Amino acid sequence: MVSRERVTHPRGGPVAFYYGTDEIDRLAAFDRVVLQGEAYSEQDIASLVVRGVRPLCYLSLTEDTGPPAQWQRSESNPDWGGHFVHVGHPGWSEHVLGKAGEMRRRGFRGFFLDTLNIELTFPDDLPHLLTLVAAIRELTYPDYLLANRGFGLLPQLAELVDGVLFESFTSRWVDNGYAPWPPDVLDVHARYAEMLLGLDVEVFALDYADTPRLAQYAQERAARFGMPCFVSTRDLGTLPS
């Protein structure tokens, strides 16, 4: 397993998640921004870097939205449509590392590692997933790595990444809009947050809301755990005004 030394980032501060296009000037207000790699040109990325922003490229590590491939499983994500993958398949590792290398050459300064929660669906793939994260760490060091949840990979995951995102910490999207989690789930999330804060990683929250009241509740609750909280809509297509 490849470990890493702590990388310091003097700006610190918030991270934004935006899967839309354009909005370079508004994105420049954040310290780090998570973007879809194909949505921005090299010139756009360079413009953010010049302004002191660290752009992070989205990477899915256990789901594939591309054309049929030998590493794909027959099952797919019912919400987003991507096929689950055999994480240990050499072709999948080559695919992910190839994309990471390409996006790094285009100017990205780090990666957002998504779809890490497979401990209940494909637990046998957890060791392969840690190996893949370690390979990304080795390929991209000292770029910033931000993991989305990945609780089933802790504490080993904390030795390989710089930050952990707690997505949907307080609120969630439901069939008819957005709502807080029920009290029992909030209690479980609080225990996970306390565990994360005991590790040597930066910790952030991402919540979903469509009203100022719900957004404020999510941000205030995350602040009690010392987590900067970004609030958006389900498609991550909005930025705060």
Automatic annotation (TrEMBL):
Domain of life (superkingdom): Bacteria
Name listed for the protein in its UniProt record: Uncharacterized protein
Organism: Kibdelosporangium phytohabitans
